[in-house]
């Protein structure tokens, strides 16, 4: 049976082609690779010089392809066949990530499904799992490493424990080539030499000495004297530098003011979530033509219905329903009536979504996160309350999964209930076309039907719209539908 050649350290090892196929089933075009690696046994004996660290160039570059996540590598140095673990892409918008913490240490054995490290993405902190079994030989990017591009190697995995020592000084060059020895210092020394020579030449150079006449002139120029006095002194061969002026002395200078004390401050490093949030909101404000519509909604009926429903929830050990849960349900129902607001802009078309997925803004210690309540129009108030509380807890623990925050079609931001903000305008969450800003409830004195006065509870909401997608009349229609659901909340549970 034909065999393929493999270099492991300074050893020559033979692996059957069937074994290689079973170990690397994910490699495309493996048959073609085998054809290049197959040797007759008598021919293989002629290549025992590979034991000295030399390998046929025809095989060194074609053994395995590089993968975006990991790749098998074999180089012309003495390192063994190994797997480079690259920074994965864990969200659609992720271009770089941070290493929050390594769960495995160098030398640890790993198996498929083992958590290698925690990756901080633009949305959350996620766990990265091992894809194959082996030993973690080298960690290339340690705890706290920041702004690592997707695909850049962060660790090395080998098959046997004996091969770990070979990767003690392993490095990956900027161009992606691997190296098992530290870079040479000759180039650095050559760069320093010209600098030293230039420094010496500059230090040896001195300013040209001025003639005595020029020195005298420059010295006389520093004496404060009128042209007439200078002329008389010159006629009498008197040096002005040795004379004391008879005029009024120059007034003493005021003492210099104390410098203004600098401000005390602390620089707080931006997290990955904060940077991505800043980029997306800046993009939104610069590229989306916002406009804003505000209405006041009467919520007395909603508060009364909420009180009754919460009594039933407590009796059945269910979670309490908040005003925000009513807002989410009303927004979802209004999107079914006015689907133009459940859309996003593209240069050649406007995409109108059939699913109503409401993104809910949640403030956490890690930054602003926006998990998604899916198919909110098809869920009851109790189910929405359960989803919101579960997602909010996961967001505050920074444990959201990509499925928890992807696919939103409309956003609700509530600063009224938790913070008492009366009214505000929110920035659209791209690529969505609308976001609803919800203010707090407050009692107002209003006229009753008999011409007298009474008090009623109101809540202000402001709809921010992308004018490329939603015209003013469409936005007003949506707000009208939302207002009708809020002021007659029984329609939300029918």
UniProtKB/TrEMBL annotation:
One of its GO terms (molecular function) is dihydrolipoyllysine-residue acetyltransferase activity. Residues 173-219, 244-263 are annotated as: Disordered. One of its GO terms (biological process) is pyruvate decarboxylation to acetyl-CoA. PANTHER family: DIHYDROLIPOAMIDE ACETYL/SUCCINYL-TRANSFERASE-RELATED (PTHR23151), DIHYDROLIPOYLLYSINE-RESIDUE ACETYLTRANSFERASE COMPONENT OF PYRUVATE DEHYDROGENASE COMPLEX, MITOCHONDRIAL-RELATED (PTHR23151:SF90). One of its GO terms (cellular component) is pyruvate dehydrogenase complex. Its cofactor is (R)-lipoate. Residues 173-182 have a biased composition (Low complexity). Residues 200-219 have a biased composition (Polar residues). This is Dihydrolipoamide acetyltransferase component of pyruvate dehydrogenase complex. It is an enzyme of class 2 (transferase).
């Amino acid at each position: 049976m034909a065999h393929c050649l493999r270099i492991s350290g300074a050893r020559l090892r033979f692996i059957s082609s069937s074994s290689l196929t079973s170990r690397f089933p994910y490699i495309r075009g493996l048959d073609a690779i085998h054809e290049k690696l197959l040797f007759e046994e008598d021919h293989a004996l002629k290549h025992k010089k590979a034991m000295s660290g030399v390998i046929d160039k025809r095989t060194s570059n074609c053994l395995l392809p590089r993968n975006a996540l990991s790749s098998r590598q074999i180089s012309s140095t003495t390192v063994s066949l190994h797997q480079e673990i690259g920074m994965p892409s864990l969200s659609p918008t992720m271009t770089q990530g941070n290493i929050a913490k390594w769960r495995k240490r160098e030398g640890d054995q790993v198996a498929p499904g083992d958590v290698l490290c925690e990756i901080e993405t633009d949305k959350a902190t996620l766990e990265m799992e091992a894809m194959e079994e082996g030993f973690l030989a080298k960690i290339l990017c340690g705890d706290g490493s920041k702004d690592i591009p997707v695909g850049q190697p962060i660790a090395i995995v080998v098959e046997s424990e004996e091969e770990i020592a070979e990767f003690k000084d392993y490095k990956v060059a900027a161009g992606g080539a691997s190296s098992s020895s530290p870079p040479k210092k000759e180039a650095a020394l050559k760069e320093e030499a010209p600098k030293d020579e230039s420094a010496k030449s500059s230090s040896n150079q001195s300013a040209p000495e001025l003639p005595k006449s020029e020195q005298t002139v420059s010295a006389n120029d520093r004496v404060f004297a009128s042209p007439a006095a200078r002329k008389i002194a010159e006629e009498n061969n008197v040096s002005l530098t040795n004379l004391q002026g008879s005029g009024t002395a120059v007034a003493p200078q005021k003492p210099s003011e104390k410098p203004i004390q600098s401000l005390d401050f602390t620089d707080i490093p931006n997290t990955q979530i904060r940077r991505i949030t800043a980029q997306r909101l800046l993009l939104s404000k610069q590229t989306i033509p916002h406009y804003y519509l505000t209405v006041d909604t009467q919520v007395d009926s909603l508060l009364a219905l909420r009180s009754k429903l919460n009594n039933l929830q407590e009796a059945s050990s269910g979670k309490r329903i908040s005003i925000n849960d009513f807002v989410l349900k009303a927004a979802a129902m209004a999107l079914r009536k006015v689907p133009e607001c459940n859309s996003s802009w593209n240069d050649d078309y406007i995409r109108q979504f059939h699913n109503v997925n409401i993104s809910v803004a949640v403030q956490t210690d890690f930054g602003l996160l926006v998990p998604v309540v899916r198919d909110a129009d098809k869920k009851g108030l109790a189910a929405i309350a359960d989803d919101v509380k579960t997602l909010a807890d996961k967001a505050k623990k920074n444990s959201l999964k990509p499925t928890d925050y992807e696919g939103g079609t409309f956003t609700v931001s509530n600063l009224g209930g938790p913070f008492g903000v009366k009214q505000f305008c929110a920035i659209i969450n791209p690529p969505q076309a609308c976001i609803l800003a919800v203010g707090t409830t407050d009692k107002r004195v209003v006229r009753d039907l008999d011409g007298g006065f009474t008090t009623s509870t109101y809540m202000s909401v402001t709809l921010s719209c992308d004018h490329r997608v939603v015209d003013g009349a469409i936005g007003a229609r949506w707000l009208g539908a939302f207002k009708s659901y809020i002021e007659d909340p029984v329609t939300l549970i029918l």
